[in-house]
Amino acid sequence: MKIWSYPSKSGENRLLRIVQRGRGFRKKDVTTVTRMLEDVRKRGDEALLDYTRRFDAPRMEMDGLTVSLEEREDAMHRVDMAFRETLKRAVGQVESFHRKQLKRSWFTTEREGTFLGQMIQPVGAAGVYVPGGKEGKTPLVSSVLMGAIPAKVAGVERIALATPPTSDGSVNPHLLAAAHFLGIQEIYKIGSAWAIAALAFGTTTVAPVDVIVGPGNVYVTLAKKLVSGTVGIDMLAGPSEILVIADADADPVCIAADLLSQAEHDPLSSAILVTDSRKTANAVAAALPGQLDRLDRAEIAGESLRRYGAIFVTEDLDAAVELANRVAPEHLELQVRDPFQWFGRIRNAGAVFMGRYTPEPVGDYIAGPNHVLPTAGTARFSSALSVDHFLKKTSVIHYSQKAFEREADDVIRLAEIEGLGAHANAVRMRTHRS
């Protein structure tokens, strides 16, 4: 990774290349995904089977699209005890964190003669999409937890999980075991845009849901964008990102490892170090090649660093924080002497990881907060997947006759100013005024 001074013209150009990467969708992808969505809407299960056979499992049969109880129970027996214990800890800690997000309905009678409030209820059904992960060889167990647990905490009665099958028509047992552990009984072996279509529109096999959450490739993301409005979605997540703010005391070997932890996701992932120490910058740059060479996903991580990696050296940590706020990264690490001194100044980030012993993967798997986070600068206005994504809020309004008559003239006046005579008349008819 090259080192840039910041601010500088060359540093600014590099930064813009990173933050503007991958924005928007190619026209041909929009056309392809739109065609898939309409195909599933019209042909239902037949379209699901056709796409599954064409792209995932050539010998899939219609009844195999649904994971059976026997498959779920068998998966629990195929995973070892150590995995079950890890799963138990992760579920407990993620659930505990999300329970603190739960909101209650509220009502007030503070204005005489009125009863006002907000009724908070869960949606009826949620769809959780879980990517396949290299033919099932990298099962994204954490995506099951992060999608399903906030839905369960919210009180959603029906949770449907969709994930693409491997070429032999199976699903990795670790993924199935995680879903079974959470009590998810509705699991479908369908992936990509056609899975999103099935969850949004429904088919004979897959009943439609109200909200769809979970990460995926460009087809999944685009499909979610196109069905948004028919159903709710969590966000349009782009390639993964990490930005590390480090000072002279930071461990360059650990920082290099943290940058690579996100670079290995995707060639479009970005990994940025911002430091006020030229020594730290040089040491991290020197540590990266050796660690990169030892990775199974070295080719992906290497391309990510070459295309969208950068080390920026700023005058001080104040400038580093301002740069981070401008980028609004998905993951922000504060690898500085006293992270508690600085985290209150972070305005834009999906999640903040503080201190040497809090690398980003801790948040991915087990810390508790959700790892589905805003990307591509959207942390400026959006937040992590949470219980709120599965709740809907209904306003409740009641007026007594006395309260109505006290405010009727104001309602009539505002309605008439807006030129909405029928609105005014609906109030006037109750006041017996002509």
Notes on the protein architecture:
It contains 17 helices and 14 strands. The protein is α/β, with parallel strands linked by helices. It has a 6-stranded parallel β-sheet, with helices on both faces. It is globular and about 85 Å long.
Percent of residues in beta strands:
15-25%
CATH architect. name of the largest domain? 3-Layer(aba) Sandwich
Low-pLDDT runs of 5+ residues are: none
* Gyration radius from CA atoms, angstroms: 25 Å
User: Helical percent range?
Assistant: 40-55%
How many individual β-strands? 14
Architecture blueprint of SSEs:
Elements: E1 3-5, H1 9-19, H2 27-43, H3 45-55, H4 69-78, H5 81-99, E2 106-108, E3 114-122, E4 125-129, H6 141-154, E5 158-162, H7 173-181, E6 186-188, H8 192-201, E7 211-213, H9 218-227, E8 232-233, E9 241-246, H10 252-263, E10 270-275, H11 278-293, H12 298-308, E11 309-313, H13 317-327, E12 331-335, H14 339-342, E13 351-354, H15 360-365, E14 391-399, H16 401-417, H17 421-431
Parallel strand pairs: 1-11, 4-5, 4-7, 5-6, 7-8, 9-10, 9-12, 10-11, 12-13
Antiparallel strand pairs: 2-3, 3-14
Helix pairs in contact: 2-3, 2-8, 2-9, 4-7, 5-6, 6-7, 8-9, 10-11, 10-12, 16-17
